[in-house]
Amino acid sequence: MDWIISDELGLTVGHLVGWGAAGAMIIGGVAPYIPQYRQIKRTQDAEGFSLYVCLTLLIANTLRILFWFGKRYELPLLIQSIVMNITMFVMIHLCVTVRKKNQIIRARERIFTAQPDDTARWLDQRSNVGREKPRRFYDMDRKYFWAWTDFQSYLDCMLVFSVLGAAITYLLIEFSPFVELIGFLAVFTEAMLGAPQIAKNYQNKSTEGMSLSMVIMWTCGDIFKTAYFVIREAPSQFWVCGGLQVSLDIIILFQVWLYHDNTAAARRLRRGD
């Protein structure tokens, strides 16, 4: 009788630990962006946060979702990818809104796809019928990629990427090397998450506008995530790239120390001290 109670207790505790770890995986990925969101909201300044961080995570998690259809992994990791994509769109919406508010002179709008009414006005203008110069343009220039001025453009871009990815995956789902390639690209892209922020900090020679709390939570979360991958025997792509992600987090923390004086000066300038 005692062994039955012991087994049931062990099973219950094991379930609780498993559920807790799964919940931490889902929520833990989102948590680092809460302090960054609050900082941008409070200061009304989004220049210190790289939107390429959002692009990196959107691509990585979209690929991870596609990978799930070819090689099933744990459900919490799939849910985490969906929640993370939603979170990244929330961050993008805030940054686009703040940057629009901060424009002193209204700049030419940049969008991912041409709007029908804009195209019609352009054609009218070509035939000397239009009365208004179109304000929005479709930009093929690479320097404007992921630097659009409206939130809808970011949604459209990821929709195109997702549909193309889903179509290719559907056609090659039985081809094992392709499925493994998707898995590798997903986790490798996520592993490079810190690279855009490292480049942004290097360009500014400052970490002003970047939330230190976000980076610390990145580091803790990535260490936990990598350990989770190893313990749960996730595909090798997950834990190898998890280690790379931790390394980039450490580089960003080093930049915080390296650019400490410049960051302090930038903050004094922003406050008008």
In short:
With 273 residues, the protein is mainly α.
Order of helices and strands: HHHHEHEHHHHHH
Number of helical regions: 11
Q: How do the strands of the widest beta sheet line up side by side?
A: 1-2
Ends: how far apart? 73 Å
Q: Report the helical percentage.
A: over 70%
Mean pLDDT: 80
The radius of gyration is 22 Å
> What would you call the shape?
globular
Characterize the main sheet. 2 strands, parallel
The low-pLDDT segments are 1-5, 115-126, 128-137
What percent of residues are in strands? under 5%
Topology of this structure?
Elements (H helix, E strand, L loop, with lengths): L1 H29 L2 H11 L7 H20 L4 H27 L7 E3 L4 H11 L9 E3 L12 H22 L3 H16 L2 H11 L7 H20 L4 H23 L1 H12 L2
Parallel strand pairs: 1-2
Helix pairs in contact: 1-4, 1-9, 2-4, 3-4, 3-6, 3-7, 3-8, 7-10, 8-10, 9-10
Account of the 3D structure:
By secondary structure, this protein is an all-alpha fold. Strands 1-2 form a two-stranded parallel sheet. The chain is built from eleven helices and two strands. The protein has helices spanning 2-30, 33-43, 51-70, 75-101, 116-126, 151-172, 176-191, 194-204, 212-231, 236-258, 260-271; strands at residues 109-111, 136-138.
